[in-house]
Automatic annotation (TrEMBL):
Belongs to the universal stress protein A family. This is Universal stress protein. Residues 2-132, 152-278 form the UspA domain. SUPFAM superfamilies: Adenine nucleotide alpha hydrolases-like. Pfam families: Usp. It comes from Salinirubrum litoreum. It comes from the Archaea. InterPro entries: Rossmann-like_a/b/a_fold (IPR014729), Universal_stress_UspA (IPR006015), UspA (IPR006016).
Length: 285
């Protein structure tokens, strides 16, 4: 598996890269090749004294490259100029990456370029599966929010085609996922609709059986009613999920916009790691 790991060279990105447990999780799902990318903003001139940004970035990347190589990964480094989310997606397309990984400090949109707006833009436009790894601020400095990236995976579905595509990504997490939690959120207006809670539970049970047979893991299911994002975040807390798996940019036959704006909002509001799987028809932006 080949990934693009986007870094802004901040302490938060350094923390994400240096987490031994997170590196082991990536190795466990078959990641062998890492393309380490940082994006230099266009509005910074490299011609000014002391402002050779590209050269400084390459020097900083060398230390992060050493961490990945010491962990057994093959590594290439890339320094690009331009808009971060466009360069991240562009590299992922060019090398045919299996996944993009970015770091985020969750609800704290601080000054780092891969925090806040850039992460949301990557989430909105990603053409490859995107893993958002949460970093939190502690008294001793930045720390990984939940180290075991895929150990307890919450999958939220509205039963759309894009949600099914995200579900089909589960087997690629074999070796890292021990427990899966399958969730469907029924909007309040669906309480009296033709699609009943019993129907949803039956569909989730079928999916749970498939996962147990294919991956040999523990699987639980749940149906909640309420606001989609609020219920997903509440379920993350209830089950202690380490990563939330969602489809991106899709609409539901149940008339709920779960896998579009909702996925982006979960990334923006949540504190969990998030794995977004784009629809097959996604094109670069």
């Amino acid at each position: 598996m080949r990934i693009v790991f986007a870094t802004d060279l901040s302490d938060a990105s350094k923390t994400a890269i240096e987490s031994r447990t997170c590196l082991e999780c990536l190795a466990n799902i078959g990641v062998r090749e890492v393309h380490l990318l940082t994006v230099v903003p266009d509005n910074v001139s490299s011609g000014l004294p002391g402002m050779d940004i590209a050269s400084d970035a390459r020097t900083a990347l060398a230390a992060q490259r050493d961490v990945f190589e010491d962990a057994g990964f093959e590594v290439e480094t890339h320094v690009a100029r331009g808009t971060p989310h466009r360069r991240i997606n562009g590299l992922a397309e060019r090398i045919d990456a299996d996944m993009i990984v970015v770091g985020s400090r969750g609800e704290s949109p601080l000054e780092n370029r891969l925090i806040g707006g850039t992460v949301r833009n990557v989430a909105r436009t990603a053409v490859r599966p995107l893993l958002v790894e949460r970093i939190e601020r502690t008294e001793s400095g930045p720390a990984v929010k939940k180290e075991h990236l895929f150990r307890d995976t919450l999958y939220a579905t509205d039963f759309s085609a894009n949600a099914e595509r995200a579900f089909d990504f589960f087997p690629q997490l074999t070796g890292a996922t021990q427990r899966a939690y399958l969730l469907h959120v029924r909007g309040r207006e669906q309480k009296d609709g033709s699609d009943t809670e019993a129907d949803a539970r039956e569909r989730l049970d079928e999916m749970a059986t498939e996962l147990r047979d294919r991956m040999g893991i523990e699987v639980e299911t749940n149906v909640r009613t309420g606001g989609v994002v609020d219920e997903i975040l509440a379920e993350e807390t209830r089950v202690g999920a380490t990563t939330t798996l969602l489809g991106a940019r899709g609409t539901s036959r149940l008339r709920r916009l779960l896998l579009g704006d909702t996925a982006e909002t979960v990334v923006a509001r949540g504190n969990n790691n998030v794995l977004l799987v784009p629809p097959e028809s996604a094109t670069p932006r």
